[in-house]
Design a protein that fits this description.
Elements: H1 3-11, H2 15-32, H3 34-47, H4 53-99, H5 102-108, H6 111-152, H7 155-161, H8 164-202, H9 204-209, H10 213-238, H11 241-265, H12 271-312, E1 334-341, E2 351-358, E3 363-368, H13 374-381, E4 392-394, E5 397-398, H14 404-408, E6 411-414, H15 425-430, H16 440-449, H17 453-456, H18 476-490, E7 494-498, H19 506-519, E8 524-528, E9 540-545, E10 548-553, H20 555-561, H21 564-573
Parallel strand pairs: 3-8, 3-9, 6-7, 7-8
Antiparallel strand pairs: 1-2, 1-4, 4-5, 9-10
Helix pairs in contact: 2-4, 2-6, 3-4, 3-12, 4-6, 6-7, 6-8, 6-12, 8-10, 8-11, 8-12, 11-12, 16-18, 20-21
């Protein structure tokens, strides 16, 4: 993404109204120039004994009304359109987040996206809203003021009076470059602080149970101190604007008093001219004092723009390497052929030459120690990581040639850690769709089959079933059972279960095991389990070790072989 693409994506849809607001703003700047001129003419007429005061009052009041209406209009057009731009930008960031690969979140966590959605989007909105107001005022008020002052006195004298203005501008530009660098560092620090804070409060139960409050507070204090130091460094640069925008305008007033005062004594200008010139200087000073703020705002926005460009240029997950019109059947056969895979951040292969064939309706068990590659197989089946071409097939179709969304529709995945939302229990099971009246019978049946009705049956009723954040009001076993119910509700042809018995007691595990037995032949079930007992009835069990298939067979065959599976089973039985 570049400046042009950014403009076309987020500003172009609203540019006509935005441009109208700029024209109204220029109109306000033009009208403001007549106020000092009318005041100067009124003073001269009063000194000459003319009785035209009422006319000047009416003219100034009319100018005030016109400026009021135009100010309301340009603020509505410019700032209002920037709110719409902010909406489009946040939506684009979220849409991009949905298309980023899993590796992005494992590397950055959610803190980076939170900083983009909050701070960086706000910086862009302020720059194109308030920053544009300050820019237009700085350009046109100074331009019109010089023209009016040249008419009131002379161009040469006007330039001499306004001599400090370029100094303010050059100083602001010089300091603005430093602001851009330091503001970008502040945003990076904020991302780290946000990510750690989110993890801290999500894991507060663990922190308290381990009595690690002191060490956590110490680590948070360190991150907070870095964030504070970065903001203080930014504030140190920004604070230089205020003295500059105060002292240099005073120099303009002093020059005006000296030059215009001498011209009055020499009889070259009137007192009214003197008042008008100082009125123009006041307008110029007002606009010039905004230049420092404008440059600070613009440089913060440029820092944010750099971060947004880097984010939008992050590679997205490949939905399809080579699209195909072929589609797997409703009862697909799954096949892995010589599958090799290494995670991007690792040098050791996670899978090394894995081959297996899973007919539709099979109940397959995957067993192995931590890091043996079991969960990696699931991630590759779902293309959360991109598998090598010609290594995973559904009905002889390489899954890399399928659209990722269509591929994932064929799987129902139950991860080790369930992600629940602050919605009703029924909405969590039917996620992402809202439960319909026709779903009540299926939901009731799933609650019974997964043993949820024993403790959570009443929460299916409206008004009682709203879960707390991340389902914290449920036990670990209840969360796992909700995940199983959610997966089965989807009725996808292939069910992926990743160690879903780890938080269940033996009685509940036995009940869910019976439930899974009723699903056999209607679904393909691939079950990762650290507990080998639930896999005794599996059609085939694959034992993984160091990314390879060390053993395979039925429970009886593997037991008789007295290999890795036999040893693992005996240890658990003992």
């Amino acid at each position: 993404m570049n400046y042009r693409k950014f403009f076309m994506s987020f500003l172009a849809p609203h540019f006509a109204v935005y441009l109208l607001g700029i024209l109204m703003l220029i109109g306000v700047d033009v009208l403001q120039m007549f106020v000092p001129k009318l005041l100067g003419a009124a003073i001269d007429d009063i000194g000459a004994g003319k009785t035209l005061l009422g006319m000047y009052v009416r003219q100034i009041l009319l100018l005030g009304v016109a400026i009021l209406l135009l100010k309301y209009g340009y603020r509505l057009c410019i700032l209002g359109q920037m709110r719409k731009c902010e909406y489009l930008l946040r939506r684009a960031i979220t849409d991009k987040a949905m298309r980023l690969p899993l590796a992005f979140y494992e590397q950055h966590g959610p803190g980076k996206i939170m900083a983009l959605l909050i701070n960086d989007v706000m910086s862009i909105r302020v720059a194109l809203g308030l920053g544009m107001l300050l820019f237009i005022d700085a350009v046109f008020l100074n331009l019109f003021a010089v023209v009016m002052m040249a008419q009131q006195i002379s161009l040469g004298l006007a330039i001499r009076v306004l001599l400090p203005v370029p100094l303010i501008l050059l100083s602001a530009i010089w300091l603005g470059r430093k602001v851009r660098v330091r503001y970008r560092r502040v945003q990076d620090l904020f991302s780290s602080l946000t990510e750690y804070t989110q993890e801290l409060f999500l894991g507060l139960t663990i922190v308290k149970s381990l009595v690690e409050e002191t060490s956590v507070e110490r680590h948070f204090a360190g991150l907070n101190r870095e964030n504070l130091d970065g903001n203080l460094q930014l504030a140190a640069v920004q604070s230089a604007y205020l003295p500059l925008t105060r002292i240099l305008p005073m120099i303009s007033y002093a020059l005006s008093l000296a030059i215009s005062g001498n011209l009055i004594f020499a009889g070259e200008i009137t007192v009214g001219d003197f008042v008008a010139v100082n009125g123009y200087i006041a307008i110029v000073i007002m606009a010039t004092m905004g230049i420092g703020g404008m440059i600070a705002v613009m440089n913060r926005a440029l820092g944010s723009f750099d971060r947004l460009v880097a984010y939008f240029n992050d590679p997205e997950e490949s939905l399809a390497i080579c699209c195909t019109e072929e589609k797997p059947g409703v009862a697909p056969e799954l096949r892995l052929e010589d599958l090799h895979f290494t995670y991007p951040e690792s040098s050791q292969p996670a899978l090394n030459g894995v081959s297996l064939r899973i007919p539709y309706g099979s109940f397959i068990g995957l067993v192995g120690g931590p890091g043996s590659g079991k969960t990696t197989i699931f991630k590759l089946l779902l293309r959360l990581y991109e598998p090598p071409a010609d290594s995973i097939f559904l009905d002889d179709i390489d899954i890399c040639r399928l659209d990722a969304h269509e591929l994932r529709d064929m799987f129902a995945y139950v991860p080790q850690e369930q992600v629940l939302f602050s919605r009703t229990l029924a909405e969590n099971i039917t996620f992402p769709d809202l439960p319909q009246e026709k779903d009540n019978a299926r939901l009731k049946k799933l609650l019974q089959a997964t043993a949820l009705d024993l403790s959570l049956g009443d929460r299916l009723q409206s008004g009682k079933s709203q879960l707390k954040e991340a389902g914290k009001d449920l036990s670990g076993g209840q969360r796992q059972r909700v995940g199983i119910a959610r997966a089965v509700f989807r009725q996808a042809p292939i069910l992926l279960l990743d160690d879903v018995f780890s938080a269940l007691d033996n009685e509940t595990a036995a009940q869910i095991d019976e439930f899974l037995a009723t699903l056999r032949r209607r679904f393909t079930i691939i079950f990762i389990s650290q507990r080998v007992a639930p896999l005794r009835s599996a059609d085939r069990i694959y034992v993984l070790q160091d990314g390879r298939i060390a053993e395979q067979g039925t429970h009886d065959e593997l037991w008789a072989a007295e290999g890795v599976y036999y040893t693992l089973y005996r240890r658990q039985e003992e």
